[in-house]
Amino acid sequence: MSIDLLAPPRAGSTGRAVGALRAIQLVVEGHWAWYRRNWRASALSSFLMPVLLLVAMGFGLGTQVRPGPATLGQPYVVYLAPAVLVAALVQTAAGESTYPVLSAFKWAKTYWAVISTPITVSQVFAGQLVWIALRLLAAGVAFLAVAACLGALTGPGVLLALPAALLAAMAFGAWIVALAASVTNEGTAFSAVFRFVVLPMTLFAGTYYPIDRLPEWARPVAWLTPMAHGNALARGAAFGNLDWLAAGGHVAYLLAMLVAGLLVAHWRFRVRLRV
After folding, report:
1. CA angle 8, 13, 19 (to 5 degrees)
2. What pLDDT, on the 0 to 100 scale, is given for residue 12?
3. Of 60, 81, 165, 220, which cross-links 152 as Cys (Cβ 3.0–4.6 Å)?
4. Where in this chain does the record put each ABC transmembrane type-2 domain (predicted)?
5. DSSP letters of 49-60?
6. Rounded CA separation 3/270 (Å)
7. Is the pLDDT at 77 greater than 70, yes or no?
8. Please, are residues 207 and 84 in contact by the beta-carbon 8 Å criterion?
9. Distance CA 49, CA 52 (A)
10. pLDDT for 45-71, tens place per residue?
11. CA 257 vs CA 46, 47, 53, 250, 260: distances in Å
12. 58-74: b (≥16 Cβ within 10 Å) or e
C-alpha cells in the first residue's frame, strides 16, 4: 500500500499543479467553508452536551461522592473533567467520521469533485483527517475553558490532557473513517457503532469510575478501548501523578491503533475513489 501524498497529478487531470501541503490546505479550507455556515448543527453535540454532562454528573451526582482513593483524592467534578474531555472528543471524532465522510462519497460526492482536480486521493484523505483533528482540537479547547471557569481543573497539567484526548479520539476516528469509506448503503452500520461501541466504551472505560471497579473479566475488555488509555493519560497529566512507564505503554497502544487505522482508511479511500 503506497501513500502518494507527494505524488504528481494524475495523467488526464486538468488545472495548475499544487504542492502536497497546499493541496491538503485546500481540502481543509473546503471543509471550513461549509462548517462556518453550519456550525450550529454540531455545537450541541460537540460542546454543550459535554459541558452539561460535567455539570450534571460533577456538581449533581458529585455531591454524593466523597473524595477518596476511587477519585484519586479529588472532588468528583475534578476527577471527572479530564475523562469527560476524552469522552467528548472520542464521541465527536465518531460523529465527524461517519455521515460527513459517507456523504462526501455517496450523496454530495465532494471527494469525486475534488479528485477531478490535480489534488490526489491521498491528499483528500489527509485533508479529511486534518480537518477532523482541528475540529477535535477546537472542541477540546472550548471544553477546557468552560471547565476552568467552573473550577473543575486543578492546574496547568491539564493542558497535557488535551493531546492525550486528541490522540485517543484520532485513534478511534481513523477506524470509523475506514468504516465510512467502506459503507455503500445509507449508513445503518453507524447506529450500531454508536449504540454498541461508543456508548458502552463511555460507560465502562473508566470515565465515571476506575476500571478496577469492573468485574475481573471485563477489565481486559475495557483496556482494549482507546478511551481507557486516553482517560489514564488525561487524568495522570491533569493530576500530576503520571507514571511515565505506564504512559509510554498507553501512548504506544494508541499510536499503533492510529497508524493501523490510517493505513486501512487510506486503502479504503483509494479503492473507493479509484478512477
Report:
1. 35
2. 44
3. 81
4. 41-272
5. HHHHHIIIIIII
6. 10
7. yes
8. yes
9. 5
10. 777 888 889 999 999 988 899 999 889
11. 23, 26, 28, 11, 5
12. bbeebeebeeeeebeeb
State which amino acid sits at residue 221.
V
CA distances from 231 to 101, 158, 250 (A): 27, 12, 10
Residue ranges of alpha helices (H) inside the chain are: 20-38, 40-43, 49-53, 76-97, 99-106, 110-115, 121-149, 161-180, 188-193, 199-204, 219-222, 226-239, 244-272
- What letter represents residue 140's amino acid? G
- Asked if 247 and 233 touch (Cβ cutoff 8 Å), the reply is yes
Rg for the chain (alpha carbons), in Å?
A: 20
Separation of alpha carbons 29 and 10, rounded Å: 22
pTM over 0.70: yes
For the chain, the domains span: 20-273
Per residue, what are the HEC states of 68-130? CHHHCCCCHHHHHHHHHHHHHHHHHHHHHHCHHHHHHHHCCCHHHHHHCCCCCHHHHHHHHHH
Alpha-carbon torsion 99, 101, 107, 108, what sign?
positive
Angle between helices 244-272 and 161-180 (to 10 degrees): 30
What is the three-class DSSP state of 171?
helix
The band of 156, judged by pLDDT with boundaries at 50, 70 and 90, is: confident
